[in-house]
């Protein structure tokens, strides 16, 4: 009998797609969550909080593979440190981590950089906690998930005039494809930092917003806003993109059509190689 694979964040947007893929591969899965959940055959839940470390020992006990998908807008570095400490004690043999493209390329030099892009710093800090842990590891950096981009454009499109950071581009990727790659990594040998996973196309943020508005049959003026700071400059220069790794297959248009219906007709401004 093989030991269960622990999926932190197994209740989240990404983790929810990792769990069934591991189960389809015949593996027993344990999910860490701050809330309590009913388990079922082959799927257990352990309650714990990575921010405080509470319950983490029990979550990693008896596991050899951990897929670390838990995360939030801030504090991921501390979460990773708590997990790593417990995993070392439990003798985990492979820690798989999901990071973000640009973690190492978005400088956080000022208050505005940290306020707007602190997430990239906390992902880099977590990457370092994983790589320096002494545990065998694999880390995948992905571009923004379709689901996240939809949340962002939805929020922006609520406003009567839509402020859009000028020059920001994104390369949304299908969350299921990221989940599949994580599962492949988890079931393989520890591989260190693996090639990035980027969506198939790069879009101006304004194009994504326009496509969404069109799909919803709404008209709103878009107001380009210049975001100050070094981090924003890096993002305008494409630090969050992986055009050479545009290996994702499902396009934003297909994702939107599935989510909102087939009326979307966004214009692609640039394509990855
Ligand atoms: N979204 C993107 O575009 C994107 C791109 C690249 C990389 N990533 C990374 O992918 C990972 C997953 O993102 P997501 O979009 O799936 O996030 P999500 O939907 O917000 O889910 C977050 C998950 O983290 C868990 N979690 C949060 N704080 C926790 C804590 N203190 N202790 C234990 N569990 C905690 C939550 O579990 P409970 O609520 O059940 O406790 C939930 O399952 C994150 O590391 C994120 O940085 C995301």
By DSSP (H or I, 4+ residues per run), the number of helices equals 9
Mean pLDDT: 94
- By DSSP, the count of extended strands is 12
Q: Helix-strand pattern, N to C?
A: EHEEHEHEHEHEEHEEHEHHE
Summarize the structure.
The chain has 273 residues and is an alpha/beta fold. Helix content is 38%, strand content 18%.
What does this protein structure show overall?
The protein is globular and about 60 Å long. The strands form 3 sheets. A 7-stranded parallel sheet has the order 3-2-1-4-5-6-9, with helices on both faces. It is an alpha/beta fold. Helix content is 38%, strand content 18%. The chain has helices at 15-24, 56-60, 76-90, 111-131, 146-157, 175-187, 205-215, 230-236, 252-260, and strands at 5-8, 29-33, 43-47, 65-68, 94-100, 137-142, 162-165, 169-170, 192-193, 201-204, 222-225, 270-271. The protein binds NADP nicotinamide-adenine-dinucleotide phosphate. Residues 8-9, 11-15, 32-35, 49-51, 69-72, 79, 98, 100, 123, 142, 144-145, 148 line the site of NADP nicotinamide-adenine-dinucleotide phosphate. NADP nicotinamide-adenine-dinucleotide phosphate binds at residues 8-9, 11-15, 32-35, 49-51, 69-72, 79, 98, 100, 123, 142, 144-145, 148.
């Amino acid at each position: 009998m093989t030991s269960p694979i622990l999926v932190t964040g197994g209740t989240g947007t990404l983790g929810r797609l990792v769990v069934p893929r591991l189960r389809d591969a015949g593996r027993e899965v344990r999910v860490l969550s701050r809330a309590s959940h009913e388990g079922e055959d082959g799927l257990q839940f352990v309650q714990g909080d990575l921010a405080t470390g509470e319950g983490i020992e029990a979550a990693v006990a008896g596991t050899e593979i951990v897929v670390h998908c838990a995360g939030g807008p801030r504090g991921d570095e501390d979460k990773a440190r708590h997990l790593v400490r417990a995993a070392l004690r439990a003798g985990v043999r492979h820690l798989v981590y999901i990071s973000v493209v640009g973690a190492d390329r978005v400088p956080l030099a000022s208050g505005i950089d940290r306020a707007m892009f602190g997430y990239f710093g906390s992902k880099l800090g977590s990457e370092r906690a994983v790589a320096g842990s002494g545990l065998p590891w694999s880390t995948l950096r992905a571009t923004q998930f379709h689901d996240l981009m939809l949340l962002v454009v939805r929020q922006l499109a609520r406003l009567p005039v839509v402020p859009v950071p000028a020059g920001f581009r994104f390369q949304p990727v299908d969350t299921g494809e990221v989940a599949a790659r994580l599962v492949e990594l988890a079931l393989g040998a520890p591989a260190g930092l693996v090639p990035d996973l980027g969506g198939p196309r790069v879009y101006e943020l304004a194009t994504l917003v326009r496509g969404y508005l069109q799909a919803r049959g709404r008209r709103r003026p878009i107001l380009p806003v210049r975001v100050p700071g070094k981090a924003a400059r890096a993002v305008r220069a494409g630090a969050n993109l992986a055009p050479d790794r545009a290996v994702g297959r499902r396009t934003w248009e297909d994702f939107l059509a599935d989510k909102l219906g087939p009326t979307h007709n966004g214009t692609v401004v640039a394509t990855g190689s």
